[in-house]
Design a protein that fits this description.
Number of domains: 2
CATH superfamily of the largest domain: Enolpyruvate transferase domain
Distance between the termini: 5 Å
CATH architecture of the largest domain: Alpha-beta prism
Helix content: 25-40%
Number of helices: 14
Strand content: 25-35%
CATH topology of the largest domain: UDP-n-acetylglucosamine1-carboxyvinyl-transferase, Chain
Structural class: alpha+beta
Radius of gyration: 21 Å
Number of strands: 23
Bound molecules: uridine-diphosphate-2(N-acetylglucosaminyl) butyric acid
Length: 420
Amino acid sequence: MDSFLIKGGTPLHGDVTISGAKNAVLPIMAATLLTAETCVIRRVPNLSDVQFMCQILTSLGAEVKFEEGTLTVRAAKIKGVGDYDLIRKMRGSICILGPLLGRLRKATISLPGGCIIGARPIDLHLKGVAALGAKIKIEGGYVHVDAKKLRGADLFLGGRAGPTVLGTANVIMAAVLADGVTIIESAACEPEVIDLIHFLNAMGAKISGGGSPTVTITGVKSLHGAEHEVIPDRIEAATFAIAAAATNGEVTLHGARADHMHAILDKLREAGVKIERNGPALKFSRNGRLKPVDITTLPYAGFPTDVQAQMMVLMALTPGISIITERIFESRFMHVSELARLGADIAIEGPSAIVKGGKPLSGAPVMASDLRASAALVIAGLAAKGSTEVNRVYHIDRGYENIDGKLRKLGARIQRQEGS
Ligand code: EPU
């Protein structure tokens, strides 16, 4: 397993180009299963999750080509049974359920199961497709969905923690080829859901209300091939912005969409980060001393759970007390004990982390536990004195394209050490 060796203490300086959004591209790749015609997707990040999804599409019978950021998929003839082990390995693969059901009227896929950040049930996905007329059976670790007919329906998709991103994507993708009109209330409003809707509409779907809690889908008979460019990754952008502030550097992000990052930019400004527009680019640096801020993660347009861990590092470096409350996933604080190894003073009280910031961080060997926790540990290593070894960086390769290369370009002293 590869690890990163980071020699901290160097402020990041320079320019970085933001890659396509992981959480947009995965459902868009799944949506290519809805047509027998060729789809071309651009600005596709080279991530292990994308490679995984390519394998899943191939295992279902699609022809897939991925070259220099452009993905071409032709799903002329596909089967509805996903490979058990392949699908089980990646939570995001649940988003093939809706397209398979829409196109073939049936699907069998392994249950994705929980992961380190929480139980991650799929009850809302299943509730949504059941409302469209699908029968559901769970057997032998598989979920089987089957519908003689898919009929449009009015349905409410809100759950314990609010809307569901991939649940919304799945129900939309099942409803595009259903008979009649589907209205989803409490739909997820994330930019990644809007991006999927743009792609589906380019394929001939009739979907309105994307980005609002009410999404209306008027079923069509068939979809055709389409071309699409994936939106830039707002979480990657936030990660680099925080790394710039944490190391007291100055970094310009190219391609970052400020209109997708309101809550993140608002909290960074409150924390004392200077944000300047430089044409279409955004420049981040410190605006004097950092200030503690309280943060609660929420569905979009609230502060994203996927930036919680990175922001916690910035607060650990900031004198004063910050309270960071996680409202989306029940156990997304795995980074806290690892940050403690670097000297961070953070206590967990129920869903909140109380960060007593301002103590200097010093390097140590740490273990990445999930994608965003790994990003947080890398930022902490860059800001800490001395050497930090971040182990199990396969987590970070799932969702950040060439993060070590991009950081080196900004002056970071980070090396990938190849493991067994
Ligand atoms: N939930 C249910 N029932 C369901 C589905 C979700 O109770 O059927 C709950 C979850 O347990 C959670 C909340 O609803 O408490 C929100 O989960 P959601 O379904 O929105 O998460 P997701 O769609 O599985 C996507 C991203 C995650 C991101 C979340 C929240 C992808 C591939 N994944 O997951 O990204 O954290 O939305 O924004 O799009 C990451 O990139 O690191 C990552 C984990």
